[in-house]
Design a protein that fits this description.
This protein is mainly beta and 161 residues long. It has one helix at 5-16; strands at residues 22-25, 32-33, 38-39, 41-43, 52-58, 61-75, 81-84, 104-105, 119-133, 139-152, 154-155. It has one domain. It contains one helix and eleven strands; from the N terminus they run αβββββββββββ.
Length: 161
């Protein structure tokens, strides 16, 4: 029997139950404003960011696969697309109004004209999977993608005197 090690690696990945990014920001309940930098980041776990490893065996051949997110591509709902190489930086009040050093976006229009008054945001994780045949030295790599979605409201602030 001829065993395809990459197919075994894909079976191992299926056992990992990988998902799309666990978006910490933006989140549907958040308050976001036109012209203010939005910081985007994700919560990290083995199924939402990695690393995650699993093995599969067939006919005496065992392949171990390790998956980790290599980038997250964000579609912001207003036409903007942002690609981020890491999980993003968590915002804290100490940062004030500065832009995110790792992953962010600034909306220039409210979401009022959108369906339901909210922008649809999609975060697509590209998982890089490295695999190896145990004891044989054969290795390989492939990618998988998983997506998460959210609807967010972008309002505007007006100064009243």
């Amino acid at each position: 029997m001829n065993v395809d090690p990459e197919q075994l690696a894909r079976e191992a990945v299926d056992r990992m139950l990988l998902t799309g990014p666990d978006m910490a920001s933006p989140r549907p309940a958040g308050r976001y404003v036109v012209g203010m930098p939005m910081w985007m980041w994700v919560n990290q776990s083995p199924t939402t960011y990695g690393p995650n490893s699993a093995s599969a065996t067939l006919a005496g051949v065992t392949v171990t696969a390790t998956a980790k997110v290599s980038r997250i591509d964000w579609a912001m709902g207003d036409g903007a697309r942002i690609s981020c190489r890491g999980p993003g930086t968590k915002y804290t009040a100490a940062y004030g109004k500065q832009t995110s050093p790792t992953c962010g976006h600034t909306y220039s229009r409210t979401s009022a004209a959108q369906k339901g008054g909210r922008y649809p945001v999609a975060a697509t994780a590209t998982w890089t999977v490295d695999w190896q045949v145990n004891g044989a030295g054969e290795t390989g790599q492939f990618t998988e993608t998983r997506q998460s979605q959210a609807l967010i409201t972008i309002g505007e602030v007006q100064v009243v005197r």
